[in-house]
From TrEMBL:
Residues 106-138 form the Zinc finger DksA/TraR C4-type domain. Interacts directly with the RNA polymerase. Zn(2+) binds at C110, C113, C131, C134. One of its GO terms (cellular component) is cytoplasm. This is RNA polymerase-binding transcription factor DksA. Pfam families: DksA_N, zf-dskA_traR. The gene is dksA. PROSITE patterns: ZF_DKSA_1, ZF_DKSA_2. Transcription factor that acts by binding directly to the RNA polymerase (RNAP). Required for negative regulation of rRNA expression and positive regulation of several amino acid biosynthesis promoters. Also required for regulation of fis expression. The lineage of its organism: Bacteria, Pseudomonadati, Pseudomonadota, Gammaproteobacteria, Oceanospirillales. It comes from Endozoicomonas numazuensis. Gene3D superfamilies: DksA, coiled-coil domain. A zinc finger (dksA C4-type) spans 110-134.
Length: 147
């Protein structure tokens, strides 16, 4: 993913007002759930708009260049855009799965150990399914198996 795409996605995730927890507030109460539904739906909407922009761009820019270098440059640009869109398509599916988890009241808790993932972590990565400790362990195991 290009640095600009990462920056764009990062901007999306910063475009909301962080949730302010009240002392003694129950975790994943109605207000918190609504907060995350709004973040996820906004993120999905912006990703879908980006997909539409790419399709329009590719249709508008598609040309049969007689120069092989120009044609190769355009094909490489389109290939990069399509790979990015494929990653975004997968992310949209992940967002949909996360919204389903919210409906099933299974959102915000670690799939591995069952503890609260935490509001701040979920704001940073709304599709997270592991608490920071379990995610760290998973990454260590992955690194060990990959070497």
């Amino acid at each position: 993913m290009s640095a600009q795409k990462k920056a764009d996605q990062g901007n999306l995730l910063r475009s909301f007002t962080p949730y302010v927890e009240k002392e003694g507030e129950e975790y994943m109460n109605e207000k918190q759930v609504e907060h995350f539904i709004n973040i996820l739906k906004q993120w999905k909407q912006e990703l879908m708009e980006e997909v539409d922009r790419t399709v329009n761009h590719m249709q508008d820019e598609a040309a049969n260049f007689p120069d092989p270098a120009d044609r190769a440059s355009q094909e490489e640009e389109f290939s990069l855009e399509l790979r990015t869109r494929d990653r975004e398509r997968k992310l949209i599916r992940k967002i949909d799965k996360t919204l389903t988890r919210i409906e099933e009241e299974d959102y915000g808790f670690c799939d591995s150990c069952g503890v609260e993932i935490g509001v701040r972590r979920l704001e940073a990565r709304p599709t997270a399914t592991l608490c920071i400790d379990c995610k760290t362990l998973a990454e260590i195991k992955e690194k060990q198996l990959g070497q």
